[in-house]
Specification:
There is one protein chain. By secondary structure, the chain is α/β, with parallel strands linked by helices. The protein has one domain (2-262): Alpha/Beta hydrolase fold, catalytic domain (Rossmann fold, 3-Layer(aba) Sandwich), CATH 3.40.50.1820. Helices cover 38% and strands 16% of the residues. It contains ten helices and eight strands. It has helices spanning 39-47, 72-86, 98-110, 141-150, 163-172, 178-189, 194-199, 219-226, 244-247, 249-262, and strands spanning 2-5, 11-17, 24-28, 51-55, 92-96, 117-121, 204-209, 233-237. Helix 2 (72-86) packs across helix 3. The protein is globular. The two termini are 26 Å apart.
Length: 268
Amino acid sequence: MSFFKTNDGVSLNYHVYGDSNNQAVILIEGYSSSEVTWILQIQSFIKEGFYVVTYDHRLHGKSEKVDFGLSIQRLALDLKELLDYLDIEKPIFIGHSMGSTTILAFEQMFTDGDLLAVISEDQSPTFLKTEGWLGGSGKVLAELSQFMDDFPKTHLTKKPLDPKLKRVLGKGMLPFDFNAGRPLLRNVITQDWRSVLKYETVPHLFLAGSESPVFPPEHAAAALALNKNKKSEAYMFEGCGHIPHLESPEEFDTVVIRFINKLGYRKK
């Protein structure tokens, strides 16, 4: 277990795998999740010759439990500081749910000039109900409090997980304090990142689960339409809920690695 300290004094848990001379892939967890959920992707990406980095956000997993800095912009700064600490340049970001909005906040704050590509998993650029976006299927501000109340009880997956994987997750994941995390969730779900996608320059793979209980699956194609890079793509995991990398890990790894390899990004 390794830790580094942010500029506001928070100890964040992280791990590195593979040869640091190879292309770096940063795996960024979602809200209430843990770096442990990437266990199968770590193995696949190392086998493909990538340098893999996982970490826990503040308040998450084995990182320090704090009641400050609970905003998506602070999480983006934590990510930037981790990259600087590990001396990583031109990474590929893979984010699940809130991990994807962490990436968009990173791009807004620091631009995407030092990135090679982005993969986002089941995250619409906005939760909010707005004209011209997904047929008005989002939520109005008055509904967000109920969403936050319901989220801890929401079953996020639709496909059954492999029993061995469930045992690994059960042993490795720590309980999440949803009450302490509520300010962060509120901050995340009141953002709108569509303007960032319009000015994004790097290739972006937008992933969705067809049975996601969080977002309508059309969000991936709609987000792709905002992005101007001709190498960007969208992909739907049929029968999956909100976490395809756990529900259909082989398909997830195949789709993501194929996308990266088509871009020609393998080793430095």
